[in-house]
Amino acid sequence: MNHALATTLSTGTIDAYINSAYQIPILTLEEERDLAIRLRDHNDMEAARRLVLSHLRFVIRIARGYLGYGLPLPDLIQEGSIGLMKAVRRFEPDVGVRLVSFAVHWIRAEIHEYILRNWRIVKVATTKAQRKLFFNLRSTKKRLGWFTRQEVEDVALELGVKPATVLEMEARLANYDLAFDGYDDDEENGISAPSAYLPDMRLEPSMLLERADSESWEHDRLIAALATLDQRSQTILQARWLAEKKQTLHELAEQFGVSAERIRQIEKVALQKLKAQLEAA
Do residues 47 and 99 both lie within one domain? Predict the structure, then answer.
């Protein structure tokens, strides 16, 4: 992103930024391919800059589609631009698709991550299925108020989740946040903020002792389960999962004189045995 456009976005003049972005001409197929090859083969940063600038209008268009989450448009555009830059760096001109078709997934992914980090209620969407449900539920729901049973089943079928998951996410989206420390204009007889009645248990001695004991127990279980495996399986699991500097399949294949696929098979079987041992314990 060039300096003028970046400065415009950071200073809050979003309309001027959008106008500037839309003044940048769209590249032809030949121009786009030539720039992409220059970037790939010669690490040409000027080519990368032109590719990014010519696609900012698409970032703006996608970012506007996420305004319903209550987050600032400049921030959504900025995050989308990061996704665009990642796409430009990874774009392969010989595949035969236009950059915009490739970049749209990176732009959306970056905006999704930004929303999940910053929109308060969405932080409860911790799994991949929950995240998918969150981003689809808002557009699927056609009216205010709670879903009927039939609507719950329809949404669950459409999104490929259980009806109970739909109900859980609907309840989460209907929640609101209560400030931990309250507000300056709280009345004397108003609802107390959580800081007035929730104790901080993080440094409570019994909790610290219980946590340390639990971690020690889990460690002992893992060591005992590992000991039931043969030496080669132990070495592979430790190198792949427990070492500070983890080794790749190919590095281990060279060490043991077998193929990388064989190392993957041994690792898979060892993990299954390890899981069974831990569950039995």
Answer: yes
C-alpha span between 62 and 76 (Å, rounded): 9
Cβ-contact 74, 9 below 8 angstroms: yes
Residue tagged 């003044």 (tokens): 23
User: What is the crossing angle of helices 128-140 and 99-118, to 10°?
Assistant: 100
Name the residue type at position 265: Q
Tell me if 1 sits within 8 A of 52, measured CB to CB: yes
DSSP state of 241: I
Residue 246 burial (10 A CB sphere; 0-12, 13-18, 19+): exposed
CATH of the domain at 80: 1.20.120.1810
Q: How many other C-beta atoms are found inside a 10 Å radius of the C-beta of residue 124?
A: 14
What b-and-e string marks burial along 53-68, b requiring 16 or more CB atoms within 10 Å of the CB?
A: bbbbbbbbebbeebee
H-only helix segments in the chain? 3-10, 14-23, 29-42, 45-53, 56-64, 73-90, 99-118, 128-140, 149-159, 163-173, 205-227, 231-237, 249-256, 260-280
Domain that holds residue 164: 122-173
Residue 199 confidence (pLDDT): 54
DSSP 180: T
Q: What is the DSSP string of 96-117?
A: S--HHHHHHHHHHHHHHHHHHH
CA-CA distances (angstroms) from residue 91 to 22, 44, 60, 76, 263?
Answer: 22, 14, 20, 22, 32
Query: Does an H or E element contain 137, and which?
Result: helix 128-140
Instruction: Look at residue 225 and give its three-state secondary structure.
Output: helix
User: Looking at the structure, do residues 148 and 106 belong to the same domain, yes or no?
Assistant: no
Residue with tokens 């946040």: 177
> Which residue reads 């739909």 in tokens?
166
Q: What is the pLDDT of residues 83-108, one digit of tens each?
A: 999 999 999 998 888 999 999 999 99
Both 114 and 126 in one domain: the answer is no
The stretch 179-200 carries a mean pLDDT of 50
Q: Are residues 59 and 88 in the same domain?
A: yes
